[in-house]
Design a protein that fits this description.
Blueprint: H1 2-24, E1 57-64, E2 67-75, E3 78-82, E4 100-101, H2 110-123
Antiparallel strand pairs: 1-2, 2-3, 3-4
Length: about 130
Amino acid sequence: MMPTSTFWRLLALPVLAVSALAGAQTPPKPSDAPPQLERIEEMGEAPITVTPAAPAQQVTEKRENGVTSEVKVTSGGSTYYMKPGAGSDQAHSNTLRGPQWKVMEFDLGKKKQKQRDEEAADDVPAPPPPAK
């Protein structure tokens, strides 16, 4: 009989452990009291500045003798040009070449001229104070 009673004891141990885990997983009964809320301090009204948005797309047309010779489209940060196809009659045709994208623009001496103008403005002496 001894081995049978040891078997039941070993079997009862996991059954008690499972029942304890099942009892621990039952959620507690919610209370009928409302939850505690925190009071948030109101901030002073900050000034709101609304700036008008820049136009999303700008189209500029160049015309020669009443016929469009070039269209410049600026959209966001990119610029491209549309020109009529080579060898086509501009007055009677709607064919265009593919768009020409503006990739880089070089400063051909404009910055140097601007720097010279600023240096010249800095070299001008201040006028003397008025005499009493």
